[in-house]
Amino acid sequence: MADVEDSKNPVVSEVMEKDVTSAVAVAGHPLHAMTVHFPIALVFVTLAIDVIYWWSGDAFWLRAGLWSSGGAFFMGAAAGAVGTIELLSVAGIRERVASWAHAIAAIMLIALAGLNWGLRVTESAEVLPHGLLVSMMAAVVTGMAGWHGGKLIFDHGIGLMVSPKD
């Protein structure tokens, strides 16, 4: 139903005609889509580590959480930089509302990942309860950013390469 209505709207039709091919790609594969997997996984790993530390009290998990949260932050910042270049350089991506919703959620996520890592670098005693709460918030925001990112790929075809034979 939405596709029928969208095709009648001249503004939506104009946006849908814009090029959405990736500007930052390796061998035609969008670099942003390739770089988000590790930070996403590390956000959830950090949450799991925090729960294990809460349950066990073993100091090993403090160091593991420091590394996983640092990886989530720095790899997320790298993925975010690539995504920002993509957003700002491709008009077909920039003009879609879902792109901006994804970008805002991703910026919130990078900020939470940085906070989570910062709590652990400065004071490991802050892991309970603050680190655990930040890890939970980061997991929720990861879901939001991922949902909007998936919407861009599956609903808008952002970064997809479709050959004439497909």
Automatic annotation (TrEMBL):
It comes from the Bacteria. Keywords: Membrane, Transmembrane, Transmembrane helix. The chain crosses the membrane at residues 36-55, 67-88, 100-119, 131-154. Pfam families: DUF2231. The keyword Transmembrane helix applies. Residues 28-159 form the DUF2231 domain. The keyword Cytoplasm does not apply. This is Membrane protein.
